[in-house]
Amino acid sequence: MAVSTRGLVFSGAGHPLAIENLELDDPQAGEVLVRMVASGVCHSDLHVVDGEWERPTNVVLGHEGAAVVGALGPDSLNDGLSEGDLVVLAWTAPCRSCTACGRDEPWLCSAPDGSGHRLREEDARLRRTDGSPIGAYSGIGTFGEHQVVAASAAIKVDPRTPPAIAALIGCAVTTGIGAVRNTAGVKVGESVVVIGLGGVGLSAVMGAAAAGANPITAIDTSSAKLELARQAGAHRTLLADDADQATGADHILECIGLVETVELAIELARPGGTVTLVGMTPQGQWASFDVYRLVEDGKQIRGSNYGSAVPARDFPMIATEYLEGRLPLDLLITERIGLDHVDEAFEAMRRGDGVRRVVVY
Question: What's the rounded mean pLDDT across residues 115-124?
Fold first, then answer.
């Protein structure tokens, strides 16, 4: 029996987002129906809304969410899920059969479960009241009150995890902490510089602190965010105009996605140091650097997609660390909002105001 629900539908850059009444089909084999409990408003969503990334239209937006399992599909490969489980939704649910998955790199999966934003007729589960299909962004569409998602995208976590925190684990937190742990491989006593202190950057600071990095330097244009970085574990903070004072670190993590800060990150790393690019620029942008100097200095540049994370491993681990008081993730939440205030959250993001707004259903 179809479920009546609501979702925030993206109809194209320059078109207003609209909350629509929708119908959700039952889950099929390998799927689960979930009731969303929280969704972060991520800068990646803003890239889509502002036309900086090309993405399909007629989809329920949102990709950073937590939910409660409502129903399992028939003969579902449900990965041990049960009705009532609290799950964090992964926007890349590994297929387990492609070349990348075979290399144990699920974040690079070429055909993730529920991929194509569920726009193909055989994948669509959401429909307008006239029967026309609506997709789900990244297969999970967390700006919808309910969704059908791949069972492999629903990762069970400790039910004591607050919904807003669980939602952020689905993207910003895992991206930042994973970049430190999995991509850069930061070790105890190594020096770390984090450029950009949004949800991802502050999570990277927390990850570096948990790894025993020393010193940790945080850089941003906002004094308020620098204060949050100190609370997150940074030993030193610098306004962007003073970034050259951070030269010579073992690890530089660029967490904004701006050409100028990518180029800055390469300059700041010590000879033999590692630059990890975490932030995502608009599509089609190019950075430049002195190739001779990079080679002569033996620096390394790494790209970090989704924190090089394995969601089934990393989501529950991060939730446990939060509950044990080792990760102060509450610092990331600027405001809890309703679904009808997402546009205002995007405006705040354009201004650089705050860290994360979280839709709480």
Answer: 84
